[in-house]
Amino acid sequence: MRSTLEALCLGWVLLALGHSETSSGPGSSWHHLASQPPLNDTETVQRCADEEGFDAVTLDERGTMLFFKGEFVWKGFNGAAEPINATWPEIQGPVDAALRIHHLSHPVAHDNVFLFQGKWVWAYAQGKLRPGYPRLIQEEFKGVPGDLDAAVECHPKECMAETVLFFRGPVVFSYDLATNALKQRSWPAVANCSAAIRWLECYYCFQGIRFVRFNPATGEVPPNYPRDARDYFMRCPGRGHGHATHANATLRAIVDPCSGQPFQALSSDDSGRIYAFRGGQYFRVDSARDGWHSWPLSHTWKGLEGEVDAAFSWEDKLHLIQGSEVTIYRAGPGYSRMEGYPRFLKGELGLVEADAAFTCPHSKDVYIIHAMST
Fold first, then answer.
1. Strand partners for 125
2. What is the Cα–Cα distance from 307 to 287, expressed in whole angstroms?
3. Helix H or strand E segment including 250
4. Is residue 116 a contact partner of residue 148, using CB atoms and an 8 Å limit?
5. How many helices (DSSP H) and strands (DSSP E) are in the chain?
6. Long-range CB pairs of 273-276, under 8 A, 24+ apart, other chains included
7. Is the pLDDT of residue 1 over 90?
8. Are 335 and 288 in contact (CB under 8 A)?
C-alpha cells in the first residue's frame, strides 16, 4: 500500500512540476542540482564570482528571478547574462535596486517592475515603460530618498499593510502604498543590504554574496544566518543546498526534485500552499509564479527536524506526523507551533503510526492510512 501511494504521489508532483515550468515561462526553472554548469563557462564564473554580489534581485511579472550586476542581468537560475538595456532600453548602466509590486487594489501598478537608479525610478508593465516615466523617486514614493541600495514589497498578510521596504545603508524605510505614510526603521541585522527579495512568502536581504532571512515586520533574523547565496539562489559548480554532502548520492537526491526518489508526505494548508516532504526537506509545489526550492523543515516550521511520514491540514492547523508523534502548527502569516507539541500520536488520533493522511473539504473526518488499513 505504501509503495503504491508513494508512486501516485510522485506522479502527481511531477505533473505539478511540469505545470510550474510551462506556466512560468522560459528562464523560470528552479535550482536543479542534478545539472551543474561546466567549470569553464565564462557566464557561470561571472555569476558565481566571490565578489560583491548583485546590485539588485527581483521577480518579474511572470515570476522569473532577475539578478542584476553592473551592465548585465541574468534571468532565472542559469543561462547567459544579457545587457540590461536589451530588455529595458531606456536604462543605461547598473541599477541600484529593483522590485515587483503585486498590488491588486491598484491595477495600474499591479505586477509592475520598478527599477531604481540614482534619484530616478522606471516602471514597466508587461515589459513596456509606463507613460510618464522615469520619475523622481520622491515623487513616486513620497519622502523616499534616492541612491537606494535595495527595495522589496511586503504583502499585507506579512506586514499588516501593502508596504515597500527601502534600504539605504543602515536605514530601512517602510512606505505604506495605501496611505503614503513613511516610517524609518533601525534594524541592525539587515543593515547594508545590496539587494532584497520576497520569495515564497519569505524575505531575504543580500549582503554581498551572502544573505539573511528576516521578518519584514520586525527586522529579526533567525539563527544560522548569513548563508551563501550560491548555495540557494543560483547554480554554481560544486555548490548548492547541501553541497558539502554532494559526494553522497543519497543525500544529494533528497534535495533534487527530479532525482526519482519518492516523497514521504504531501499536504496542502487552508491557504492553498502545497508541500512535498522528503528526508528532512520540503518543497513548495503550488507556486508557478515564485518557483520553489528544497528547504530544511525548520525553515518554515521552527524546531521541526527529521522525516515527515504523513501530514494533513484541518481548521487552519497543519498536522505533521513523525513516527509515533504528531506536531501541530497554526497557520497564519507564518507557522507557529502549538503549545505542548509534539505529542504521542496514540493519544491524539488513537494510532501508533501513519503512512499517509488526508482530509476532505467541508468534512470533519481525517483519513489515516497505515499498512493495509485506512
1. 128
2. 23
3. helix 249-254
4. yes
5. 7, 28
6. 273/201, 274/16, 275/311, 276/9, 276/13
7. no
8. no
Closest CA to 278 of 230, 311, 235, 316: 311
d(CA 168, CA 161): 21
pLDDT digits (tens, 9 = 90+) for 141-198: 999 999 999 999 998 878 888 899 999 999 999 999 889 999 999 899 998 899 999 9
Residue type, 126: Q
Grid-cell match 515564485, residue found: 290
d(CA 340, CA 84): 53
Q: Which backbone phi and psi does 124 adopt, to 5 degrees? A: -120, 130
Written as nine digits, the cell of 232 is 540557494
168-181 in b/e burial notation, b at 16+ Cβ within 10 A?
beeebbbbebeeee
**The predicted structure's pLDDT at residue 55:** 93
The sign of the CA dihedral 213, 219, 220, 226 is positive
Give the chain's mean pLDDT: 79
Residue, of 240 and 113, whose pLDDT is higher: 113
Amino acid, res. 138: Q
Given a contact cutoff of 8 angstroms between Cβ atoms, the answer to whether 200 and 292 are in contact is yes
CA 55 to chain CA centroid, Å, is: 19
Phi, psi of 11 (to 5 degrees): -60, -40
